[in-house]
Amino acid sequence: MSVFVDLETRLLVQGITGRDGSFHTRQMIAYGTKVVAGVTPGKGGQPFDGVVPVFDTVADAVRETRANATVIYVPAALAASAMYEAADAGMGLIVCITEGIPVLDMTKVLPYVHERGARLIGPNCPGLISPTQSKVGIIPGNICKPGRVGVVSRSGTLTYEIVHQLSSNGFGQSTCIGIGGDPLIGTNFIHCLSAFQADPATDAVVVIGEIGGTDEQQAAEFVQQGMTKPVIGFIAGQTAPPGRRMGHAGAIISGSAGTAAEKMAAFAQAGISVMKRPADVVPLLRERL
Amino acid sequence: MSVFVDLETRLLVQGITGRDGSFHTRQMIAYGTKVVAGVTPGKGGQPFDGVVPVFDTVADAVRETRANATVIYVPAALAASAMYEAADAGMGLIVCITEGIPVLDMTKVLPYVHERGARLIGPNCPGLISPTQSKVGIIPGNICKPGRVGVVSRSGTLTYEIVHQLSSNGFGQSTCIGIGGDPLIGTNFIHCLSAFQADPATDAVVVIGEIGGTDEQQAAEFVQQGMTKPVIGFIAGQTAPPGRRMGHAGAIISGSAGTAAEKMAAFAQAGISVMKRPADVVPLLRERL
Amino acid sequence: MNLHEYQARDILKRHGIPVPDGDVAQTPAEAQTIAQRLGGKVVVKAQVHAGGRGKAGGVKLAAQPDEAAAHASRILGMTIKGLTVQKVLVAPATDIASESYVGIIVDRGSQRPVLMVSDAGGIDIEEVARATPERIYRLAIDPRYGLLPHQGLGLALRLYRDLAQARSAAAIMANLYAAFYAVGASLAEINPLVVTPDGRVLALDAKIVIDDNELGRHPEIAALRDTSAEAPSEVQAREAGLTFVKLDGSVGCCVNGAGLAMATMDLVKYYGGAPANFLDIGGSSNPQKVVDALRIITADPHVKAILFNIFGGITRGDDVANGIVQATRQFPLAVPLVIRLTGTNEAEAVKILTQAGFSALTDMDEAVRQAVARAAT
Amino acid sequence: MNLHEYQARDILKRHGIPVPDGDVAQTPAEAQTIAQRLGGKVVVKAQVHAGGRGKAGGVKLAAQPDEAAAHASRILGMTIKGLTVQKVLVAPATDIASESYVGIIVDRGSQRPVLMVSDAGGIDIEEVARATPERIYRLAIDPRYGLLPHQGLGLALRLYRDLAQARSAAAIMANLYAAFYAVGASLAEINPLVVTPDGRVLALDAKIVIDDNELGRHPEIAALRDTSAEAPSEVQAREAGLTFVKLDGSVGCCVNGAGLAMATMDLVKYYGGAPANFLDIGGSSNPQKVVDALRIITADPHVKAILFNIFGGITRGDDVANGIVQATRQFPLAVPLVIRLTGTNEAEAVKILTQAGFSALTDMDEAVRQAVARAAT
After folding, report:
1. Hey, what long-range contacts does B139-142 have (CB within 8 A, 24 or more apart)?
2. Per-residue pLDDT tens for A71-116?
3. Percent helix / strand / coil, chain B, rounded to 5
4. B248 is annotated as an active-site residue
5. Which residues are CB-contacts of B278 (< 8 A; sequence separation ≥ 6)?
6. From C145, C154, C163, residue closest to A59, measured CB to CB
7. Contact A128/A178 with Cβ under 8 angstroms?
8. What residues of C are in contact with residue B161 (Cβ under 8 Å)?
9. C165, C188, C222 — which closes off a domain?
10. Which chain D residues touch C144 with a CB distance below 8 Å?
11. What is the pLDDT of residues C219-232, one digit of tens each?
């Protein structure tokens, strides 16, 4: 068992012939993900690497291959359109890796996707992986091991760091999810925590947050009220100066609500074990399990 | 009992100080409708006729008076905004009398109203009346009598004609509803038929249609599949030349689908007794009851 | 309100849709000047609110400017489906590799604007819809989001295998949708949308119908109205705030409300007569409207009797009665008048009419029977 | 990207929002000319990306053109919050009857643009939010429908009892919302929105921040960037495709990914050091980016050690290694370099680094500890 992706995931790749799309498609196939189709307008009919059928439109791809999830690697200027198209074609899961999408695009994409009942992960995220079952996105498969810890993170490489710590110390993962660092994203901490709480294959959850916004505080409230499984948390950005922008559009501190100190306090108050540094994840997990 | 409006209806009038609004507000109050508030921006605080409190916004009016239905008499250029405002304020029933509203305005108003769970009747309609309980709109109260026949119509004055026939011959009405003749309206025949079918105070229904569109055909299908109560029908426009516009924007004949002949055939096939002329309503009702 | 082809082309052009060059002419000399400026072969097209212009001889190719003038002189003044041609469009004759259809209307069923495309362009699209419906692709557009890029491209790929052409067509669809809302259209179509031999996608002919209810907020569009291209009685009716359609019978009808007006006409036929017109005086009547209505009805020499059928709601019976009295004072009626009047202010109305020497009925069937009888004698 | 007040005013004006006349000057002579043209009293305002200009002496009233020139000469070249004033706005001094605040930002919680208004305008709105939150009214706008007329009027009626003023303010809100989407803003505010003694509603000062992700499709907005108003190292970093923020410590950090970069800085502090910067080389790294990053970091004289922390995902370790090697060939490093590198193409990377005489660690804590120690010596 796992969360959001598993052996039943039949993946479509939007932007399969692009630089990033082709590279990561090969990585996903090598990992064992069932990549059933690709989409690049104008390249329909020319199989990718001779094996994955490519279509002009998502609707065509879904009709022909019964794909039930899609991952988007198209350039930022086309990404909103790709998400609309995926939702229109009835995709249940849409994972958008693309970074640099204007926030105002997302103000319209999000209700559209929501109205059609799709789950969007991202944008500007590394995707997700259920080790040995399905890898959707760019999380390096070799750092993950199958196991019973769920991981959810707003960050990319910081996630790899912590997952690496877990795997190296015998804690495999049920699913690792990078929800993305943009201000407007489709799936937040609470959606993931609630899925992990319901997943019988997950025993504990690691939450990796950062400065900016109040998602972590809301996650803390959810953990306190709705979770029985142990949760370990980390917040990046303790040394970030207030009010300065730190790469992620999400990392603008507004008032005091977005500081690392406040988020760590909210975590602690909700019974989440708070790491001081990434390497703390292993001892804290041992303590709680 | 009745449909959509009854003794519990607490009515707000949008555009209460206008020419039509003030005239019909007095008529509705004289009929016994509970008119609890009016709205005219800039005239908040100046009671209408000294008795009905007037507010600047619908939200203010609802907060102060617990109005649960609204009727709109504002000019066409402001009518869409009035409907948005009513839906935003949580109105359960919105009756829009105003005619001349651009169809493209309605393409946006309709989903907005729908998302907020409100029932919109009209626009460009005479409103509705549950005799002796509540009159909302402009249907002359004196032609109606309380009773057990439901009336639903796309027309205004033609409805009066037929209701007049009913009342003069001992058939009172549970509710008479003018749904409006515009191409895009909030409440269609099926919504009304289904309400009348569910209403224990209604024994039979009179449906008054006209050329243009396929609402009558869909109503016929609904009657055939979902109604046990007798239905009597009329279609105006048998002598309308094909393709000519007949005053109602709704009355453009498209292909053969909108002709009176086709609609009458659909009615007959669905077991609806079809009037040849308005005066037939009484003998046909006698036959079916 | 119907726009002429040349007006619709201008709107498309303003919204970034490629249309061939060209201009409108009201005289053969103007046509010649335009043809000269354009150079090469041109097409001279009658500008009338009627389909089938080609079959009627209203569209002609000209190799030389003087030939364009000659065609213009034949086409100007020509009558097509009862309408006199007052203007011609002179445009370059475009070489065509393929023809498609693109149109937008508001669909009552989905309550949304529907984009329709077909690879069977250049011909009567209603005939295509009847004969080969599978060649028409439809998409209901969610106006909350507009036409999304993938939707336009998806439809365009049904028309063109070439990606560049499909992208051009998709951009044209997006611009047509924007124009549709911007001008307040109830129909906007490009037929044909052509591909030239060198691969450009162009709107060769365009038709736009404006929702009359939009004209108030689009004065620049309202100014495009060409009353010379409409029947004078209908122009007169519109200016008086009446809805009027001329028909062939002998019973002139003056009714309040479109539904009741149609039912009245139907009843005229039911009793063996034939209505001379549809006329709806509308809701908020005033006496002047009734005067104007009577003036329009009586201008038709086929009218042998006039039937008023008024069921007062918003319309006040006394207003109508006053209008009848005023009208008959201003111009004597040559034909009998049958008045049915009930509802709001009925008593006052009857009093006014009686004092002026008219009688009023209250029963619709009786009134129609009398009017039909009077028209027959 | 921050816009200057005069640029934001231009955008508002283009979107139909009334702003006072005025123009921007780069010299006292230009300021004098503008003041002359405007006539009467003027205000001379420093154009810098910083709040609190008034308190810093960057906003001055002038009764005469030569006084405007004198103020301009004092303000131009002045330093406000570390930024040098290069331009002043010269505008008529407006008489003010009341001041309000109107702003739009995108709210993460509702995932919608939020319109905020307050009758406490003219001052620091964040202070108002803290001290008297009940004086701020918020409305989350559904972008599928836009700001609806009744919503704007409803908020405007919170600011003004006079209906005409409220309608003017509502129109300004609608136009501000349109501008917000049209230019791709992440913040657009008018503070103060004033009413003049004769009842006109005007935007007296405006602030617009553009979402950097929008600049690609708004070249006319991107062209407004004033690099002279930004820190040179940040300009350099942006042009190299890096995200860089200068800090006060001694450990230069070069990391892939914003989250890991922040966690690295935190760990530097955890082990007793102080980060000299935030630097994210981003995902699709190439060797040149690493060269540029090292150039920027080494330009800071406070940097005593440089720490690379790379966890390869999209970023390929060999690209980073090649970049380090190329950089050190182009310019010798005066400070020690500690490299932590793991993930994609780790083996190739270690080989490249080893051949060039560098060693690479795989443990983050160990690397940070070493870097802090080296910086301390």
Report:
1. B139/B163, B139/B176, B139/B178, B139/C313, B140/C312, B140/C313, B140/C343, B140/C344, B141/B27, B141/B30, B141/B31
2. 999 999 999 999 999 999 999 999 999 999 999 999 999 999 999 9
3. 35, 20, 40
4. yes
5. B158, B161, B162, B165, B234, C263, C267, C364
6. C154
7. yes
8. 260, 263, 311, 364
9. C222
10. 144-145
11. 999 999 988 777 78
In a domain, D213, yes or no: yes
D201 and D248 share one domain = no
Phi, psi of C283 (to 5 degrees): -80, -70
Domain that includes residue D72, residue range: 21-92
Q: Tokens for D297, please give them.
A: 């970091």
CB contacts, 8 Å: A62 with chain C: none
Q: Which CATH superfamily is domain A139-288 in?
A: Succinyl-CoA synthetase domains (3.40.50.261)
Residues of D in contact with B108 (CB under 8 A): 145
On whether residue D66 sits in a domain, the answer given is yes
> Mean pLDDT score of chain D, rounded to an integer?
92
Min distance C241 CA to chain B CA atoms (Å): 11
A10-121 against A139-288: fold identical: yes
In a domain, C10, yes or no: no
Place of tokens 């009093």: C351
Give the chains touching A; criterion: ≥3 Cβ pairs < 8 Å. Answer: C, D
State the DSSP code for D300: -
Q: Is the pLDDT of residue B213 over 90?
A: no
Task: Provide the CATH number for the domain around residue D290.
Answer: 3.40.50.261
Q: Are B249 and B136 spatial neighbours (Cβ–Cβ below 8 Å)?
A: no
Query: Which one is the CATH code of A10-121: 3.40.140.10, 1.10.1270.20, 3.40.50.720, 3.40.50.1000?
Result: 3.40.50.720
Indicate yes or no: CB of B249 within 8 angstroms of CB of C211: yes
Point out the catalytic residue in the list C5, C67, C189, C346: C189
CATH number of D214's domain: 3.30.470.20
User: Is residue B239 within 8 Å of residue C269, measured between CB atoms?
Assistant: yes
Give yes or no: residues C217 and C326 share one domain: no
Quick check: A244 pLDDT over 60?
A: no
Asked if residue C239 and residue C170 are part of one domain, the reply reads: no
- The two tokens of residue C269 are 């036929």
Shortest CA gap A91–chain C (Å): 15
Q: What is the overall mean pLDDT for chain B?
A: 93
Instruction: Name the residue of chain C whose CA is nearest to D144's CA.
Output: C144
Q: Do B103 and C364 touch (CB under 8 A)?
A: no
pLDDT at B147 over 90: yes
Query: Which residues of D belong to the active site?
Result: 101, 189
pTM, rounded to two decimals: 0.93
Residue contact B255–C126, C-beta within 8 A: yes
- Per-domain residue ranges of chain B: 10-121, 139-288
| Smallest Cα distance from A59 to chain C, Å | 9
B242 band by pLDDT with thresholds 50, 70 and 90: low
Global ipTM: 0.92
From B108's Cα to the closest Cα of chain D, the distance in A is 8
